[in-house]
Amino acid sequence: MIRDYIRTHTNPPVFIISGIVAIAFVLWGVLAPANVDTVASNVNSFITTNFGWLYILSATLFLVFVVVIMLSRFGNIRLGPPDSKPEYGRLPWFAMLFTAGMGIGLVYFAVSEPVSHYLNPPTGPGSTEADVAEAMNLTFFHWGLHPWAIYIVLGLSLGYFAFRRGMPLRPAAAFYPLIGDRIYGWVGHLIDILAVFGTLFGLATSLGIGGQQVGAGLETLFGIPNTATLQVILILAITAIAVVSVMLGIDKGIRNLSLINLWLAFALMVFVFVVASSRDIVNALANNIGTYLQNLPLTSFETYPGNAEAREWQADWTLFYWGWWISWSPFVGMFLARISFGRTIRQFIAGALFAPVGASMVWLTVFGDAALQRLRANPNNPLADASSETAMFVLFNQLPVVEAVSILASVLAIIVVVLFFATSSDSGSLVVDILTNGGDPRPRWQQRLFWAVLEGVIAAVLLAAGAVSGADALSALQTASIVAGLPFCIVLLLMCVGLSRALNQERRTLPRTEEPSPLVGLRESTTRRTRTGPTGEPGGGSTTDISEEDTRRNDSGRDQE
Predict the structure, then answer these.
(1) CA distance 99 to 235
(2) pLDDT per residue over 82-124, tens digit each?
(3) What is the residue extent of each domain of the chain?
(4) Whole-angstrom Cα distance, residue 77 to residue 96?
(5) CA-to-CA distance for 329 and 541, rounded, in angstroms?
(6) Nearest 5°: phi and psi at 67?
(7) Could you tell me the pTM of the whole model?
(8) Which segments cross the bilayer (predicted)?
(9) How far apart are the C-alpha atoms of 482 and 479, rounded to whole Å?
(10) How far is CA 522 from CA 229, 254, 517, 558, in A?
């Protein structure tokens, strides 16, 4: 009976291998957590030392690739039949892609990252006026165009091959132009398995970060020590909330939770904007965007050659983020594809690239510059010593409001993190099950339940492994992201090649919309004047012959096109 179920509702090689290896990792983490952390740290060190350049170049290549496609004539292609319409309205679509794509991380790092870059920049002494702009530039760099370009590469590939070419909604389908029917063999299964593990460990990073921040909020409000044990309990408890969303399905579950969470996060941001120095924040936003765009080419290719300290900083920040986004890309990209049926390629890229990046820039400026203002005014401000998970709550305590309002803001932040956690887990279980069932976009809830529980357990194991080894719990999550991201970085690069080949095959079938050339009317007018002469008299000669020949050649050329 079980065998028949697996054959009917899953892609057996992908489902069985992914499930067994994931469960084996959990058992390894439970039985020998210190060994897990040691092995992962060694692999992480090898990757950052020898392949950091690959992350840097690839992320920038993905950004250039999606922008070129968006501006090309291929932007008019729909992710579906030519007459298809979007399945979701713009606001629900944006809410789902934003909460799935960034969510927990923006709440976790919005205050702590700008403060960290200001105090400890990759180069220079830190805590100077120049470091204020550089801190926000680096923060925008990590949360701006590059991560969303990574998501779009996979989401666009899957949406195009699944909805336009009628292939299964699985990463291997994007390789059809490269390997043909072998996507249904072991090569395709291997690609999908890599996507499963990228998703699982990318999700584990986000879920672990969410557990840390919720624990910090509870410690701030109620004095409960924010230990690794508490964080593990929180991860498992919030995973149970995600299970409820799994049972409700995508329309009643993810969609509604995403909309609620978007409005709550917006309310929290508006609160900080109003009670902080709003005029200074608006000025800072314009300056931050200008600095980011001005420095984007240089920042995109920076590898700090010959500067060991700066390269260590880059491994802790930029390479961690790029590995996180790449390992997270199967989840976000597939989810983006799943909710973007009927949109044109241009709509898809523009919406997924600029809308969430713009929202992220506003969010980071409101929280980041509010913290930097206070730190510049008082170098001994408690924000300087706050950890990543406590920094936002420390900021709330310093806002010019009564204590009750500050507590309410902290409660709201905890709720936002919990809902981000739940939507990420639910969306992730949907994606992992699509990956393991052969590309069916409407999987069975029992399988989604299995993956949702397993995601939470993996996050708990990683946190516990870091705690047992005595390392920072975040470092264990960072290591998992970087390690899982490397093989899938190669997969994404090959996806760009496959998608380019597939789009070029459509070149001759795409409709060409041409504006009427003013030369046609000009030539016709010239022909008439030459035939009749400048005063209406019949004219002639070679001018008439040349004009008619040009007109015939022009008409012939258009007919051929």
Answers:
(1) 18
(2) 888 888 888 778 777 766 666 678 888 999 999 999 999 999 8
(3) 1-509
(4) 23
(5) 68
(6) -65, -40
(7) 0.82
(8) 12-31, 51-71, 91-111, 145-163, 183-209, 229-250, 257-276, 322-341, 348-366, 401-422, 449-468, 480-503
(9) 5
(10) 80, 59, 9, 16
